[in-house]
Design a protein that fits this description.
Layout (H helix, E strand, L loop, with lengths): L33 H9 L2 H10 L4 E2 H7 L5 H13 L3 E6 L5 E6 L1 H33 L1
Antiparallel strand pairs: 1-3, 2-3
């Protein structure tokens, strides 16, 4: 049969009213796993520092940049955008000249402070053991 006369499969029928289709399962550690995607964002070093800084209150971009030593403008902008997309941060633009932009934690963002504080506490409790292990590894 010539290529233009081949039968194409019919597109899948839309679900019947009231039927909700579940998302196909994803590999637990695969790149499409929703938990992994959020964890990749939340566990980033700049995310933790930004959430900590915003825990003190509303901040402007330049204040955040000064507060977080070592973060480039590019990484700060990218991380703030992702935190906004994920619902952890709000961005408010005030119509002034020049525009004033402020960032604040949302309720969800404030909830993120709890596991971050727990992680900080664990690090502070175990820092001596971690540093000893690093020294031992460097000596060997």
């Amino acid at each position: 049969m010539p290529p233009d006369r081949r039968r194409r499969p019919a597109p899948p029928a839309p679900p019947a009213a009231g039927i909700v289709r579940k998302r196909p399962p994803t590999a637990p550690f695969g790149p499409k796993c929703p938990t992994r995607q959020i964890l990749d964002h939340v566990a980033g070093k700049w995310t933790v520092l930004i959430v900590d800084a915003l825990a003190e209150g509303v901040m402007r971009y330049t204040d955040l940049h000064r507060r977080i030593d070592g973060v480039s403008q590019k990484m700060l902008t990218q991380t703030l955008r992702q935190l906004e997309v994920d619902g952890f941060v709000t961005r408010t633009v005030h119509p002034t000249v020049p525009p004033r932009v402020e960032y604040a934690l949302t309720e969800l963002g404030h909830g993120l402070r709890v596991p971050i504080a727990a992680l900080r506490e664990w690090i502070e409790t175990n820092i001596n053991e971690i540093e000893a292990a690093r020294r031992a590894a460097a000596e060997s």
